[in-house]
Amino acid sequence: MPIAKANSQSHAAYNEIKRRILAGLFGPDHRLREIEVANLLDMGRTPVREALKRIQDEGLITHEPGRGLVVTSMDPQEVGELYAMRQVLEGAAAELAARHASDADIANMQAILDDGDGGDPVAQNLRFHQAVYGAAHNRYLIRSLQSLTETTYLLGRSTLSTPARAARSNTEHDAIVAAIRARDPRAAQEAAQHHIHQALLERLKMLRQG
User: Within the chain, what is the greatest distance between any pair of CA atoms?
Assistant: First the structure.
């Protein structure tokens, strides 16, 4: 059965608006007016309205009195809550990966680390974490982690933007892979949780420095 045109347009609008938000093209000061977004995307207002509602339900945009829809911003407490959930779920992903990863899954993680970051530690970090998620072989966990990862993009500049933190992150990734290869669920969980905790400390430092 073919997808209805209206649903197809709404899905396209959703994907494009979300892509722009996560790429930083819509910043915290940008008001997402329905008619302006529709004109920008050269789409009708109805699919754009449906897309904005869906993205608002996901928490990436917020309705503020007097301003309308804006990209969600987070205070330090919310940042702490976000990383607390990431610490739990990333730990669970690594633990499950230690139990269920195939040899090919582990080889893929190691290859990502061996290939280096090519000057883009953020992209390498994303590839590595996606590999761990996949190796956990739990679609519901993956869905939850994808949502948290997208919310993290709202924080702007990555914690890996400094060479020192990027280097420490690589060492932490090595420890995660080593524990997964050793089929040690507890060590994998602890290594992943330590990694996210260190990222939180770096994020809080960045917030203090403005």
Answer: 55
Q: What is the pLDDT along the chain (210 residues), one digit of tens a residue?
A: 333 455 788 999 998 988 888 777 787 778 899 999 999 999 999 999 999 999 998 888 889 888 899 888 888 898 999 999 999 999 999 999 999 999 999 999 999 999 988 888 888 998 999 999 999 999 999 999 998 988 888 887 788 888 899 999 999 999 999 999 999 999 999 999 999 999 999 999 988 886
Which residues, 6 or more positions from 115, have their beta carbon under 8 angstroms from its beta carbon? 124
Helices of type H across the chain: 5-22, 34-41, 45-57, 76-100, 103-114, 121-136, 139-152, 163-181, 185-208
Task: Please give the Cα distance from 195 to 89 (Å, whole number).
Answer: 12
Query: Hey, what domains does the chain have and what are their CATH numbers?
Result: 5-71 (1.10.10.10), 76-208 (1.20.120.530)
Give the predicted TM-score (pTM) of the model.
0.77
Q: 71 forms bridges with which residues in the sheet?
A: 61
Q: Is-contact 112 127, C-beta < 8 A?
A: yes
For 144, phi then psi, to 5°, come to -65, -40
Strand partners, 68: 64
- Say how far apart CA 19 and CA 128 lie, in whole Å: 21
- SS3 of residue 182 by DSSP: coil
Distance from C-alpha of 63 to C-alpha of 183, rounded to nearest angstrom: 46
